[in-house]
Amino acid sequence: MHKNLIDLGKNEKAEVVELEGGHSMSRRLESMGIRPGKIISRISSQLMGGPIIVMVDGRQTAMGRGMAAKVRVQPVDSS
């Protein structure tokens, strides 16, 4: 079952399946290392909005909730 990056729980890992949005949104996400096939995990987020912090390729990066909602992921087994 696919869901948005924003819907992942804390420290939940998922594979990036699709980047929604236009060309510039896809380029921005890809410049952050977020592209289809990559394993990503949500590290934290602020309770009242604010950025979402994710880990991809051993690096932490922050993005807004609107951008995170454009990243479609498939949760992976963490074992």
Structural features:
SH3 type barrels, six-stranded antiparallel β-sheet, alpha+beta, 16% helix, 79 residues
Fold and architecture overview:
- A 6-stranded antiparallel sheet has the order 1-6-2-3-4-5.
- β3 and β4 (52-56) form a beta hairpin.
- The chain is of the alpha+beta class and 79 residues long.
- The two termini are 18 Å apart.
- It is built from 2 helices and 6 strands, in the order ββαβββαβ.
- It has a single domain (3-75), classed as SH3 type barrels, CATH 2.30.30.90.
- 16% of the residues lie in helices and 39% in strands.
Lay out the secondary structure.
Elements: E1 3-4, E2 13-19, H1 23-31, E3 39-45, E4 52-56, E5 59-63, H2 65-68, E6 71-75
Antiparallel strand pairs: 1-6, 2-3, 2-6, 3-4, 4-5
CATH homologous superfamily annotation = Ferrous iron transport protein A (FeoA)
Q: Name the structural class.
A: alpha+beta
Termini gap:
18 Å
What CATH architecture would you give?
A: Roll
Which regions are unreliable across 5 or more consecutive residues at pLDDT < 50?
none
**Largest sheet descriptor:** 6 strands, antiparallel
Strand content: 35-45%
Give me the number of helical elements.
2
Chain-averaged pLDDT: 90
Task: Return the CATH class.
Answer: Mainly Beta
Output the CATH topology.
SH3 type barrels
Identify the strand order in the major beta sheet.
1-6-2-3-4-5
SSE run: EEHEEEHE
- Tally of separate domains: 1
- Tell me, briefly, the overall form: globular
